[in-house]
Amino acid sequence: MLGTLVVVGAVIVGAVAASPQMDLADLWEATVVDPHDGEAGSGGEGYSFMITSSSGSPVTWGCDARIEIEVNPEGAPRGYAEPLTSAVARVNEASGFTFEVTGETTDRDFDDRHRRTVLLGWADEEEVPGLEGTVAGLGGSTYLTGPGGGGRAVGGSVVVDTDDGGWLGFGGIDLEVLLVHELLHVLGLGHTEDTTQLMAAENSGQSELGEGDLAGLAALREAACS
Ligand SMILES: [Zn+2]
Fold first, then answer.
1. SUPFAM superfamilies this protein is in (predicted)?
2. What's the 7 CA to ligand 1 centre distance in angstroms?
3. Where are the alpha helices (DSSP H) in 1-128?
4. What total of structural domains would you count in the chain?
5. If you measure from the C-alpha of residue 141 to the centroid of ligand 1, how many angstroms do you get, rounded to a whole number?
6. Contact 67, 141 (CB under 8 A)
7. Beta-carbon neighbours within 5 Å of ion ligand 1
8. What are the tens digits of pLDDT across the range 188-224?
9. In the predicted model, what is the mean pLDDT of the chain?
10. Average pLDDT of 180-193?
């Protein structure tokens, strides 16, 4: 028990001494170079990490974190709640992490999520320029890195494009699949060049998590809980 308390204390100290950075990943975009594809060379076969700390571990959430999602329903398609619930359940089961939809909000600050909930909402490219072109959604987390080399996610956001991806069905991709992809970015996975995985930058019809996706989630969980 004491050991646990010491570890928690060290993480908090590291967080206080660090500066927050935002890392949002582009989605489903084939033509524009995406600087947030994942850290080059990180991860393993069929997966990459959004970012790794200086100690080499992927940055993700705490092992026991209750990751709260607040939904801003403005601009959402009718019937969004069911695919959202399914997406959260799928990600929780596959990852071992715990997302929880805690309610609705009018908050639209998708960028500054420092020590705040994961804000999930709908917007257009005028409001969120990252949604420009064929990008259907964005997802990522705000994280802190400490002087000891560790890193922890402390907030995040998911934005679905009202022009392209706000629909319940976009180019063959349904909203549930889109949200699963985005929530995996929030957990810390980047894109993979393996086009058979759900974390490929461009979706070519896959709706289930592939072996690489699952291996990546297992690696995040290992980093969070070891
Ligand atoms: Zn993506």
1. Metalloproteases ('zincins'), catalytic domain
2. 32
3. 2-17, 81-95
4. 1
5. 13
6. no
7. 25, 27
8. 999 898 989 999 887 777 889 999 999 999 999 999 9
9. 79
10. 91
